[in-house]
Amino acid sequence: MLLNTCLNPYKTNPKRQAQTITGAPKNMRTIRTKVFKFEELSETAKQKAIIDHVNFEIEVMDENSPYYEVAMKMETPWFLTEALYFDYRNSIIETIKANEYEFYKDGELINLSK
Known about the structure:
The protein is an alpha+beta fold and 114 residues long.
């Protein structure tokens, strides 16, 4: 799948950025890049995607997180990433697939708003 994204050189100037809503400035450019679904990634890229998602889950974890109880029970929280990666790997993969995340070839999540 190919994805087109536009880079706005006026990101820091809200007045100029507002002008891009109705028309692109002359120096805006289009970049084409290949994106991949989780299933299309290499094994190494899949591992990176899973680890990155685990780290994201840890960063946003609260009482409603499915992994909150695991974190609270651990006496060694510095191993939480590893524990979630190995014990909840299938659940994390299901979450990635259900959200239809798209990745670069190396497994880095593409952060775009639809």
